Protein backbone atom coordinates (compact mmCIF):
# COMPACT_ATOMS: atom_id res chain seq x y z
CA UNK A 1 0.00 0.00 0.00
CA UNK A 2 1.39 3.40 -0.90
CA UNK A 3 0.42 6.45 1.05
CA UNK A 4 0.72 10.11 0.35
CA UNK A 5 -0.66 13.45 1.42
CA UNK A 6 -2.38 11.92 4.42
CA UNK A 7 -5.16 13.98 5.87
CA UNK A 8 -4.36 14.71 9.50
CA UNK A 9 -7.00 14.58 12.16
CA UNK A 10 -8.53 12.67 15.02
CA UNK A 11 -9.53 9.12 14.14
CA UNK A 12 -13.20 8.26 14.35
CA UNK A 13 -12.87 4.67 13.25
CA UNK A 14 -9.69 2.65 13.56
CA UNK A 15 -10.10 -0.49 11.49
CA UNK A 16 -7.53 -3.17 12.15
CA UNK A 17 -6.90 -6.39 10.24
CA UNK A 18 -10.57 -6.71 9.29
CA UNK A 19 -11.48 -9.96 7.55
CA UNK A 20 -14.88 -11.07 6.33
CA UNK A 21 -15.16 -14.51 4.79
CA UNK A 22 -18.35 -16.07 3.60
CA UNK A 23 -19.30 -19.71 3.77
CA UNK A 24 -17.47 -21.60 1.02
CA UNK A 25 -14.19 -19.79 1.63
CA UNK A 26 -14.88 -16.60 -0.36
CA UNK A 27 -12.97 -13.73 1.25
CA UNK A 28 -14.72 -10.36 0.92
CA UNK A 29 -12.42 -8.37 3.17
CA UNK A 30 -8.85 -9.57 3.50
CA UNK A 31 -7.08 -8.26 6.60
CA UNK A 32 -7.96 -4.67 5.87
CA UNK A 33 -6.71 -1.79 8.03
CA UNK A 34 -7.79 1.81 7.65
CA UNK A 35 -8.48 4.99 9.60
CA UNK A 36 -11.57 7.17 9.17
CA UNK A 37 -10.70 10.80 9.96
CA UNK A 38 -13.10 12.76 12.18
CA UNK A 39 -15.02 15.66 10.67
CA UNK A 40 -14.01 14.82 7.09
CA UNK A 41 -15.58 13.26 4.05
CA UNK A 42 -13.76 9.93 3.82
CA UNK A 43 -14.25 8.24 0.47
CA UNK A 44 -13.96 4.51 -0.23
CA UNK A 45 -13.63 3.82 -3.92
CA UNK A 46 -13.07 0.76 -6.06
CA UNK A 47 -14.65 -1.55 -8.61
CA UNK A 48 -17.83 -3.42 -7.75
CA UNK A 49 -17.17 -6.52 -5.69
CA UNK A 50 -14.04 -5.07 -4.05
CA UNK A 51 -15.71 -5.19 -0.62
CA UNK A 52 -16.39 -1.50 -0.03
CA UNK A 53 -20.07 -2.01 0.86
CA UNK A 54 -19.13 -4.88 3.16
CA UNK A 55 -16.60 -2.67 4.93
CA UNK A 56 -19.28 -0.01 5.41
CA UNK A 57 -21.72 -2.56 6.83
CA UNK A 58 -19.12 -3.74 9.35
CA UNK A 59 -18.87 -0.20 10.72
CA UNK A 60 -22.48 -0.21 11.99
CA UNK A 61 -22.47 -3.97 12.61
CA UNK A 62 -24.97 -4.97 9.97
CA UNK A 63 -22.31 -7.60 9.28
CA UNK A 64 -20.16 -9.44 11.80
CA UNK A 65 -16.51 -9.57 10.70
CA UNK A 66 -14.80 -12.94 10.81
CA UNK A 67 -11.63 -11.46 12.26
CA UNK A 68 -10.13 -8.11 13.22
CA UNK A 69 -11.31 -5.12 15.21
CA UNK A 70 -13.00 -1.78 14.74
CA UNK A 71 -12.66 1.01 17.28
CA UNK A 72 -15.02 3.97 17.41
CA UNK A 73 -13.43 6.91 19.26
CA UNK A 74 -11.04 4.42 20.82
CA UNK A 75 -13.69 1.98 22.02
CA UNK A 76 -14.03 -1.45 20.41
CA UNK A 77 -17.47 -1.54 18.79
CA UNK A 78 -18.14 -5.00 20.20
CA UNK A 79 -18.20 -3.25 23.61
CA UNK A 80 -20.93 -0.84 22.47
CA UNK A 81 -24.58 -1.91 22.56
CA UNK A 82 -25.41 -2.59 18.91
CA UNK A 83 -28.55 -0.42 18.78
CA UNK A 84 -26.70 2.48 20.43
CA UNK A 85 -23.88 2.03 17.93
CA UNK A 86 -26.34 2.24 15.03
CA UNK A 87 -27.88 5.39 16.44
CA UNK A 88 -24.39 6.94 16.68
CA UNK A 89 -23.38 5.71 13.23
CA UNK A 90 -26.13 6.45 10.72
CA UNK A 91 -26.31 4.74 7.36
CA UNK A 92 -27.82 5.65 4.01
CA UNK A 93 -28.32 2.84 1.54
CA UNK A 94 -27.75 2.81 -2.20
CA UNK A 95 -31.41 3.20 -3.05
CA UNK A 96 -33.60 4.71 -0.38
CA UNK A 97 -36.39 2.53 0.95
CA UNK A 98 -39.16 4.65 2.40
CA UNK A 99 -41.31 3.12 5.14
CA UNK A 100 -45.09 3.24 4.71
CA UNK A 101 -46.58 6.57 5.80
CA UNK A 102 -45.65 10.24 5.58
CA UNK A 103 -42.21 11.81 5.52
CA UNK A 104 -42.81 12.80 9.15
CA UNK A 105 -43.42 9.17 10.11
CA UNK A 106 -40.23 8.18 8.32
CA UNK A 107 -38.27 10.83 10.22
CA UNK A 108 -39.76 9.67 13.53
CA UNK A 109 -38.83 6.02 12.95
CA UNK A 110 -35.29 6.13 14.33
CA UNK A 111 -35.99 8.21 17.44
CA UNK A 112 -39.11 6.20 18.31
CA UNK A 113 -37.20 2.92 17.91
CA UNK A 114 -34.75 4.29 20.47
CA UNK A 115 -37.55 5.42 22.77
CA UNK A 116 -37.11 9.10 22.01
CA UNK A 117 -39.41 11.74 20.60
CA UNK A 118 -38.91 14.17 17.77
CA UNK A 119 -41.07 17.28 17.32
CA UNK A 120 -42.23 18.88 14.08
CA UNK A 121 -39.96 21.97 14.24
CA UNK A 122 -36.97 19.63 14.48
CA UNK A 123 -38.31 17.58 11.55
CA UNK A 124 -38.62 20.74 9.46
CA UNK A 125 -35.05 21.66 10.40
CA UNK A 126 -33.91 18.26 9.16
CA UNK A 127 -35.69 18.68 5.84
CA UNK A 128 -34.10 22.10 5.39
CA UNK A 129 -30.72 20.61 6.16
CA UNK A 130 -31.08 18.22 3.21
CA UNK A 131 -32.50 20.99 0.95
CA UNK A 132 -36.08 19.75 0.98
CA UNK A 133 -39.13 21.97 1.35
CA UNK A 134 -40.28 21.66 5.01
CA UNK A 135 -43.90 21.84 3.87
CA UNK A 136 -43.48 18.35 2.40
CA UNK A 137 -43.54 16.89 5.91
CA UNK A 138 -46.97 15.29 5.59
CA UNK A 139 -46.47 14.03 2.06
CA UNK A 140 -46.72 10.28 1.43
CA UNK A 141 -43.13 9.06 1.45
CA UNK A 142 -43.87 6.47 -1.24
CA UNK A 143 -44.63 9.22 -3.73
CA UNK A 144 -41.21 10.91 -3.75
CA UNK A 145 -38.76 11.01 -6.63
CA UNK A 146 -35.52 9.03 -6.25
CA UNK A 147 -33.55 12.14 -5.34
CA UNK A 148 -36.13 13.33 -2.82
CA UNK A 149 -36.35 9.89 -1.24
CA UNK A 150 -32.56 9.75 -0.91
CA UNK A 151 -32.60 13.15 0.83
CA UNK A 152 -35.37 12.00 3.19
CA UNK A 153 -33.32 8.92 3.94
CA UNK A 154 -30.36 11.14 4.89
CA UNK A 155 -32.66 13.29 7.06
CA UNK A 156 -34.08 10.10 8.60
CA UNK A 157 -30.58 9.05 9.67
CA UNK A 158 -29.84 12.56 10.98
CA UNK A 159 -32.93 12.39 13.20
CA UNK A 160 -30.91 10.08 15.47
CA UNK A 161 -28.23 12.81 15.80
CA UNK A 162 -25.45 10.49 14.67
CA UNK A 163 -21.75 11.35 14.97
CA UNK A 164 -20.92 9.51 11.77
CA UNK A 165 -22.86 9.07 8.55
CA UNK A 166 -22.13 6.09 6.29
CA UNK A 167 -23.32 6.37 2.70
CA UNK A 168 -23.32 3.43 0.30
CA UNK A 169 -23.18 4.84 -3.25
CA UNK A 170 -25.99 7.27 -2.42
CA UNK A 171 -26.08 8.86 -5.87
CA UNK A 172 -25.61 5.86 -8.14
CA UNK A 173 -29.30 5.78 -9.06
CA UNK A 174 -29.71 9.54 -9.39
CA UNK A 175 -29.43 12.02 -12.25
CA UNK A 176 -26.62 14.65 -12.25
CA UNK A 177 -28.77 17.41 -10.73
CA UNK A 178 -29.98 15.22 -7.85
CA UNK A 179 -26.40 13.99 -7.40
CA UNK A 180 -25.12 17.56 -6.98
CA UNK A 181 -27.79 18.33 -4.38
CA UNK A 182 -26.79 15.29 -2.31
CA UNK A 183 -23.11 16.23 -2.61
CA UNK A 184 -23.89 19.78 -1.46
CA UNK A 185 -25.79 18.33 1.50
CA UNK A 186 -22.81 16.19 2.50
CA UNK A 187 -20.47 19.19 2.36
CA UNK A 188 -22.94 21.12 4.50
CA UNK A 189 -23.10 18.33 7.09
CA UNK A 190 -19.32 18.30 7.31
CA UNK A 191 -18.90 22.09 7.46
CA UNK A 192 -21.87 23.03 9.63
CA UNK A 193 -22.18 20.01 11.93
CA UNK A 194 -18.58 18.76 11.79
CA UNK A 195 -19.96 15.34 10.94
CA UNK A 196 -17.67 12.46 10.01
CA UNK A 197 -18.78 11.05 6.67
CA UNK A 198 -17.81 7.77 5.06
CA UNK A 199 -18.80 7.76 1.42
CA UNK A 200 -18.64 4.66 -0.74
CA UNK A 201 -18.49 5.70 -4.35
CA UNK A 202 -17.74 4.19 -7.72
CA UNK A 203 -17.07 7.58 -9.28
CA UNK A 204 -13.61 9.12 -9.12
CA UNK A 205 -15.12 12.42 -10.26
CA UNK A 206 -17.44 12.47 -7.26
CA UNK A 207 -14.59 11.67 -4.88
CA UNK A 208 -12.51 14.43 -6.39
CA UNK A 209 -15.41 16.87 -6.08
CA UNK A 210 -16.21 16.38 -2.41
CA UNK A 211 -13.91 13.99 -0.54
CA UNK A 212 -11.13 15.11 1.81
CA UNK A 213 -9.51 11.71 1.95
CA UNK A 214 -9.88 8.65 -0.17
CA UNK A 215 -9.00 4.98 -0.05
CA UNK A 216 -8.84 2.81 -3.12
CA UNK A 217 -9.99 -0.78 -2.60
CA UNK A 218 -9.31 -3.88 -4.64
CA UNK A 219 -10.08 -7.52 -3.78
CA UNK A 220 -10.93 -6.83 -0.14
CA UNK A 221 -7.84 -4.74 0.56
CA UNK A 222 -7.02 -1.06 0.55
CA UNK A 223 -4.27 -0.56 -2.02
CA UNK A 224 -3.90 3.20 -1.87
CA UNK A 225 -4.85 6.01 0.50
CA UNK A 226 -4.43 9.74 0.40
CA UNK A 227 -6.13 12.85 -0.85
CA UNK A 228 -8.12 12.48 -4.08
CA UNK A 229 -5.44 14.57 -5.85
CA UNK A 230 -2.80 12.14 -4.69
CA UNK A 231 -4.73 9.21 -6.17
CA UNK A 232 -4.82 11.02 -9.49
CA UNK A 233 -1.25 12.27 -9.65
CA UNK A 234 1.07 10.23 -7.43
CA UNK A 235 3.10 7.09 -8.15
CA UNK A 236 0.82 4.14 -7.72
CA UNK A 237 -0.23 0.59 -7.81
CA UNK A 238 -0.91 -0.20 -11.48
CA UNK A 239 -4.64 -0.43 -10.77
CA UNK A 240 -4.72 3.14 -9.46
CA UNK A 241 -3.30 4.32 -12.76
CA UNK A 242 -5.94 2.42 -14.66
CA UNK A 243 -8.55 4.03 -12.46
CA UNK A 244 -7.09 7.47 -13.05
CA UNK A 245 -6.87 6.84 -16.80
CA UNK A 246 -10.47 5.74 -16.84
CA UNK A 247 -11.27 8.96 -15.12
CA UNK A 248 -9.31 11.01 -17.63
CA UNK A 249 -10.85 9.34 -20.64
CA UNK A 250 -14.33 9.82 -19.28
CA UNK A 251 -13.46 13.46 -18.68
CA UNK A 252 -12.45 13.76 -22.34
CA UNK A 253 -15.76 12.27 -23.40
CA UNK A 254 -17.52 14.95 -21.41
CA UNK A 255 -15.67 17.80 -23.10
CA UNK A 256 -17.38 19.50 -26.03
CA UNK A 257 -15.45 19.08 -29.31
CA UNK B 1 -57.61 -58.94 7.67
CA UNK B 2 -60.30 -61.46 6.74
CA UNK B 3 -62.97 -59.88 8.89
CA UNK B 4 -62.13 -56.49 7.35
CA UNK B 5 -62.54 -57.96 3.89
CA UNK B 6 -65.80 -59.61 4.84
CA UNK B 7 -66.99 -56.23 6.10
CA UNK B 8 -65.80 -54.53 2.93
CA UNK B 9 -67.28 -57.05 0.52
CA UNK B 10 -70.93 -55.96 0.78
CA UNK B 11 -69.80 -52.36 0.12
CA UNK B 12 -67.76 -53.32 -2.92
CA UNK B 13 -70.50 -52.47 -5.48
CA UNK B 14 -70.62 -48.93 -4.07
CA UNK B 15 -66.83 -48.56 -4.27
CA UNK B 16 -66.79 -49.91 -7.81
CA UNK B 17 -69.59 -47.52 -8.73
CA UNK B 18 -67.54 -44.55 -7.48
CA UNK B 19 -64.56 -45.94 -9.38
CA UNK B 20 -66.41 -45.45 -12.71
CA UNK B 21 -66.17 -41.71 -12.05
CA UNK B 22 -62.40 -42.02 -11.63
CA UNK B 23 -62.11 -43.98 -14.88
CA UNK B 24 -64.13 -41.23 -16.54
CA UNK B 25 -61.62 -38.66 -15.22
CA UNK B 26 -58.74 -40.82 -16.45
CA UNK B 27 -60.51 -41.04 -19.82
CA UNK B 28 -60.75 -37.24 -20.03
CA UNK B 29 -57.09 -36.91 -19.11
CA UNK B 30 -56.14 -39.33 -21.90
CA UNK B 31 -58.48 -37.72 -24.44
CA UNK B 32 -57.31 -34.17 -23.68
CA UNK B 33 -53.65 -35.28 -23.44
CA UNK B 34 -53.35 -33.84 -19.93
CA UNK B 35 -50.96 -36.67 -19.07
CA UNK B 36 -52.34 -37.25 -15.59
CA UNK B 37 -53.54 -40.85 -16.21
CA UNK B 38 -50.60 -42.45 -14.50
CA UNK B 39 -50.56 -40.28 -11.39
CA UNK B 40 -54.35 -40.51 -11.14
CA UNK B 41 -54.20 -44.31 -11.21
CA UNK B 42 -51.40 -44.31 -8.67
CA UNK B 43 -53.37 -41.91 -6.46
CA UNK B 44 -56.47 -44.10 -6.61
CA UNK B 45 -54.54 -47.22 -5.70
CA UNK B 46 -52.65 -45.42 -2.95
CA UNK B 47 -55.80 -43.93 -1.46
CA UNK B 48 -57.43 -47.37 -1.49
CA UNK B 49 -54.50 -49.10 0.18
CA UNK B 50 -53.76 -46.31 2.69
CA UNK B 51 -57.37 -46.00 3.79
CA UNK B 52 -57.85 -49.75 4.14
CA UNK B 53 -54.65 -49.87 6.17
CA UNK B 54 -55.63 -47.04 8.50
CA UNK B 55 -59.14 -48.47 8.84
CA UNK B 56 -57.65 -51.80 9.82
CA UNK B 57 -55.20 -50.15 12.22
CA UNK B 58 -57.92 -48.06 13.85
CA UNK B 59 -60.14 -51.12 14.27
CA UNK B 60 -57.28 -52.93 16.03
CA UNK B 61 -56.56 -49.94 18.27
CA UNK B 62 -60.19 -49.40 19.23
CA UNK B 63 -60.51 -53.09 20.04
CA UNK B 64 -57.31 -53.29 22.08
CA UNK B 65 -58.26 -50.26 24.21
CA UNK B 66 -54.59 -49.55 25.04
CA UNK B 67 -53.88 -45.76 25.28
CA UNK B 68 -50.29 -46.35 24.22
CA UNK B 69 -51.56 -46.83 20.67
CA UNK B 70 -52.94 -43.30 20.61
CA UNK B 71 -49.40 -42.09 21.23
CA UNK B 72 -47.98 -44.24 18.44
CA UNK B 73 -50.56 -43.14 15.84
CA UNK B 74 -50.32 -39.44 16.79
CA UNK B 75 -46.52 -39.72 16.73
CA UNK B 76 -46.61 -41.06 13.17
CA UNK B 77 -49.03 -38.31 12.11
CA UNK B 78 -46.80 -35.62 13.65
CA UNK B 79 -43.67 -36.98 12.01
CA UNK B 80 -45.24 -37.11 8.56
CA UNK B 81 -46.73 -33.61 9.01
CA UNK B 82 -43.44 -32.16 10.26
CA UNK B 83 -41.45 -33.64 7.38
CA UNK B 84 -44.00 -32.53 4.78
CA UNK B 85 -44.19 -29.00 6.12
CA UNK B 86 -40.44 -28.77 6.62
CA UNK B 87 -39.83 -29.87 3.05
CA UNK B 88 -41.97 -26.99 1.77
CA UNK B 89 -39.67 -24.52 3.53
CA UNK B 90 -36.42 -26.31 2.85
CA UNK B 91 -34.20 -23.26 2.43
CA UNK B 92 -34.90 -22.20 6.02
CA UNK B 93 -32.27 -23.53 8.43
CA UNK B 94 -33.71 -26.25 10.71
CA UNK B 95 -36.98 -26.16 8.74
CA UNK B 96 -38.04 -29.66 9.80
CA UNK B 97 -37.39 -29.05 13.48
CA UNK B 98 -39.31 -25.78 13.34
CA UNK B 99 -42.26 -27.41 11.57
CA UNK B 100 -42.36 -30.36 13.92
CA UNK B 101 -42.13 -28.10 16.97
CA UNK B 102 -44.87 -25.76 15.72
CA UNK B 103 -47.30 -28.53 14.83
CA UNK B 104 -46.77 -30.57 17.98
CA UNK B 105 -47.00 -27.55 20.30
CA UNK B 106 -50.17 -26.47 18.53
CA UNK B 107 -51.58 -30.00 18.95
CA UNK B 108 -50.63 -30.15 22.62
CA UNK B 109 -52.23 -26.78 23.39
CA UNK B 110 -55.43 -27.36 21.41
CA UNK B 111 -56.05 -30.97 22.33
CA UNK B 112 -54.96 -30.31 25.91
CA UNK B 113 -57.51 -27.51 26.27
CA UNK B 114 -60.33 -29.58 24.81
CA UNK B 115 -59.56 -32.58 27.01
CA UNK B 116 -59.10 -30.41 30.10
CA UNK B 117 -62.48 -28.75 29.50
CA UNK B 118 -64.02 -32.18 28.97
CA UNK B 119 -65.22 -31.33 25.47
CA UNK B 120 -64.09 -34.76 24.30
CA UNK B 121 -63.55 -38.05 26.07
CA UNK B 122 -59.91 -39.16 26.10
CA UNK B 123 -60.77 -42.30 24.10
CA UNK B 124 -58.97 -43.43 20.94
CA UNK B 125 -62.25 -42.96 19.05
CA UNK B 126 -62.23 -39.20 19.68
CA UNK B 127 -58.56 -38.40 20.19
CA UNK B 128 -57.19 -39.95 16.98
CA UNK B 129 -59.54 -38.34 14.43
CA UNK B 130 -59.43 -35.00 16.26
CA UNK B 131 -55.64 -35.06 16.50
CA UNK B 132 -55.62 -35.80 12.76
CA UNK B 133 -57.72 -32.75 11.97
CA UNK B 134 -55.64 -30.50 14.22
CA UNK B 135 -52.35 -31.78 12.79
CA UNK B 136 -53.56 -31.38 9.19
CA UNK B 137 -54.62 -27.79 9.73
CA UNK B 138 -51.60 -26.88 11.84
CA UNK B 139 -49.41 -28.30 9.08
CA UNK B 140 -50.98 -26.05 6.44
CA UNK B 141 -50.69 -22.99 8.69
CA UNK B 142 -47.06 -23.82 9.48
CA UNK B 143 -46.04 -24.28 5.84
CA UNK B 144 -47.75 -21.08 4.77
CA UNK B 145 -46.27 -18.94 7.55
CA UNK B 146 -42.74 -20.27 7.16
CA UNK B 147 -42.64 -19.90 3.38
CA UNK B 148 -44.21 -16.45 3.48
CA UNK B 149 -41.81 -15.11 6.10
CA UNK B 150 -38.79 -16.45 4.23
CA UNK B 151 -39.96 -14.91 0.93
CA UNK B 152 -40.87 -11.58 2.50
CA UNK B 153 -37.61 -11.25 4.42
CA UNK B 154 -35.71 -11.86 1.19
CA UNK B 155 -37.71 -9.40 -0.86
CA UNK B 156 -37.76 -6.72 1.88
CA UNK B 157 -34.09 -6.93 2.70
CA UNK B 158 -33.38 -3.29 1.97
CA UNK B 159 -36.33 -1.99 4.02
CA UNK B 160 -35.40 -4.22 6.96
CA UNK B 161 -31.73 -3.22 6.89
CA UNK B 162 -32.72 0.45 6.61
CA UNK B 163 -34.74 0.01 9.80
CA UNK B 164 -31.93 -1.89 11.55
CA UNK B 165 -29.46 0.82 10.54
CA UNK B 166 -31.70 3.37 12.26
CA UNK B 167 -31.29 1.51 15.54
CA UNK B 168 -34.49 -0.54 15.41
CA UNK B 169 -34.29 -3.97 17.05
CA UNK B 170 -34.87 -6.83 14.62
CA UNK B 171 -38.38 -7.51 15.86
CA UNK B 172 -39.40 -3.94 15.01
CA UNK B 173 -37.49 -3.95 11.72
CA UNK B 174 -39.30 -7.10 10.58
CA UNK B 175 -42.68 -6.19 12.09
CA UNK B 176 -44.55 -5.91 8.79
CA UNK B 177 -43.15 -9.22 7.52
CA UNK B 178 -43.92 -11.00 10.80
CA UNK B 179 -47.52 -9.81 10.77
CA UNK B 180 -48.00 -10.82 7.15
CA UNK B 181 -46.59 -14.29 7.81
CA UNK B 182 -48.91 -14.76 10.78
CA UNK B 183 -51.93 -13.61 8.80
CA UNK B 184 -50.99 -15.81 5.84
CA UNK B 185 -50.94 -18.90 8.03
CA UNK B 186 -54.31 -18.14 9.59
CA UNK B 187 -56.23 -16.75 6.63
CA UNK B 188 -57.41 -20.03 5.01
CA UNK B 189 -59.05 -21.18 8.24
CA UNK B 190 -60.52 -17.81 9.13
CA UNK B 191 -62.01 -17.62 5.64
CA UNK B 192 -63.46 -21.09 5.75
CA UNK B 193 -64.82 -20.40 9.25
CA UNK B 194 -66.56 -17.29 7.93
CA UNK B 195 -68.27 -19.14 5.09
CA UNK B 196 -68.84 -22.44 6.87
CA UNK B 197 -72.25 -23.88 6.06
CA UNK B 198 -72.81 -21.37 3.25
CA UNK B 199 -70.52 -22.85 0.63
CA UNK B 200 -69.87 -26.37 1.79
CA UNK B 201 -70.79 -28.52 4.72
CA UNK B 202 -67.54 -29.26 6.50
CA UNK B 203 -66.07 -32.74 6.73
CA UNK B 204 -66.84 -33.76 10.29
CA UNK B 205 -70.46 -32.63 9.99
CA UNK B 206 -70.93 -34.26 6.58
CA UNK B 207 -69.60 -37.50 7.98
CA UNK B 208 -71.96 -37.49 10.93
CA UNK B 209 -75.00 -36.65 8.80
CA UNK B 210 -74.13 -39.36 6.30
CA UNK B 211 -73.78 -41.79 9.20
CA UNK B 212 -77.29 -40.90 10.31
CA UNK B 213 -76.81 -38.42 13.18
CA UNK B 214 -79.39 -35.66 13.65
CA UNK B 215 -78.17 -32.41 11.99
CA UNK B 216 -78.15 -30.40 15.24
CA UNK B 217 -75.87 -32.93 16.88
CA UNK B 218 -73.56 -32.77 13.86
CA UNK B 219 -73.63 -28.97 13.99
CA UNK B 220 -72.61 -28.95 17.63
CA UNK B 221 -69.58 -31.05 16.91
CA UNK B 222 -68.70 -29.01 13.85
CA UNK B 223 -68.75 -25.76 15.82
CA UNK B 224 -66.34 -27.20 18.35
CA UNK B 225 -64.13 -28.55 15.56
CA UNK B 226 -64.09 -25.23 13.71
CA UNK B 227 -63.12 -23.20 16.79
CA UNK B 228 -60.52 -25.76 17.70
CA UNK B 229 -58.97 -25.59 14.24
CA UNK B 230 -58.84 -21.77 14.31
CA UNK B 231 -56.95 -22.06 17.58
CA UNK B 232 -54.65 -24.73 16.19
CA UNK B 233 -53.80 -22.66 13.12
CA UNK B 234 -53.16 -19.56 15.25
CA UNK B 235 -50.81 -21.42 17.61
CA UNK B 236 -48.98 -23.14 14.76
CA UNK B 237 -48.56 -19.92 12.74
CA UNK B 238 -47.34 -18.03 15.76
CA UNK B 239 -44.74 -20.57 16.76
CA UNK B 240 -43.60 -21.23 13.18
CA UNK B 241 -43.32 -17.50 12.44
CA UNK B 242 -41.37 -16.82 15.63
CA UNK B 243 -38.96 -19.73 15.19
CA UNK B 244 -38.39 -18.94 11.51
CA UNK B 245 -37.74 -15.30 12.35
CA UNK B 246 -35.10 -16.40 14.84
CA UNK B 247 -33.27 -18.27 12.08
CA UNK B 248 -32.88 -15.12 10.03
CA UNK B 249 -31.68 -12.68 12.69
CA UNK B 250 -28.67 -12.79 15.00
CA UNK B 251 -28.72 -11.72 18.63
CA UNK B 252 -26.97 -8.54 17.56
CA UNK B 253 -29.84 -7.60 15.24
CA UNK B 254 -28.27 -8.60 11.94
CA UNK B 255 -30.29 -10.03 9.06
CA UNK B 256 -28.69 -13.19 7.65
CA UNK B 257 -30.02 -14.45 4.34
From TrEMBL, chain A:
PROSITE patterns: ABC_TRANSPORTER_1, ABC_TRANSPORTER_2. The keyword Transport applies. The keyword Acetylation does not apply. Residues 13-244 form the ABC transporter domain. Keywords: ATP-binding, Nucleotide-binding, Phosphate transport, Transport. Pfam families: ABC_tran. Signal peptide: none annotated. GO terms for biological process: phosphate ion transmembrane transport. CDD domains: ABC_PstB_phosphate_transporter (cd03260). GO terms for molecular function: ATP binding; ATP hydrolysis activity; phosphate transmembrane transporter activity. Coiled coil: none annotated. GO terms for cellular component: membrane. PANTHER family: ABC TRANSPORTER I FAMILY MEMBER 17 (PTHR43423). This is ABC transporter domain-containing protein. It comes from Rubritalea profundi.
Automatic annotation (TrEMBL), chain B:
Pfam families: UPF0014 (PF03649). GO terms for cellular component: plasma membrane. InterPro entries: UPF0014_fam (IPR005226). It is found in: Membrane. The keyword Transmembrane applies. It comes from the Bacteria. It is a multi-pass membrane protein. Keywords: Membrane, Transmembrane, Transmembrane helix. Coiled coil: none annotated. The chain crosses the membrane at residues 12-31, 43-62, 68-86, 98-120, 126-147, 195-213, 219-245. Belongs to the UPF0014 family. This is Iron export ABC transporter permease subunit FetB. The lineage of its organism: Bacteria, Pseudomonadati, Verrucomicrobiota, Verrucomicrobiia, Verrucomicrobiales.
Amino acid sequence: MTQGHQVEGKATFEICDLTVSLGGGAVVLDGLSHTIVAGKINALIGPSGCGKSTLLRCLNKLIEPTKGSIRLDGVDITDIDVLTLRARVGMVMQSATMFAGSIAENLAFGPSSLGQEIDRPRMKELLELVSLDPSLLDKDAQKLSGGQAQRVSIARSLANKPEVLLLDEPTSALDPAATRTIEATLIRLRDELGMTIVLVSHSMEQVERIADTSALMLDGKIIETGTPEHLLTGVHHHWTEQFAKGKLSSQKENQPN
Amino acid sequence: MLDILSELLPRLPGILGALTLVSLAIGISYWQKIGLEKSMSVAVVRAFVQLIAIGYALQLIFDSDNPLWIGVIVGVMLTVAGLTSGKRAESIPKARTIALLSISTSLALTLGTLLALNVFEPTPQSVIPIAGMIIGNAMTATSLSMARLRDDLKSSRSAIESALALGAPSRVAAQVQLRTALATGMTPLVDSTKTVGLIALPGAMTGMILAGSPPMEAVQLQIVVMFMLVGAAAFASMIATFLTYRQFFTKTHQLKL
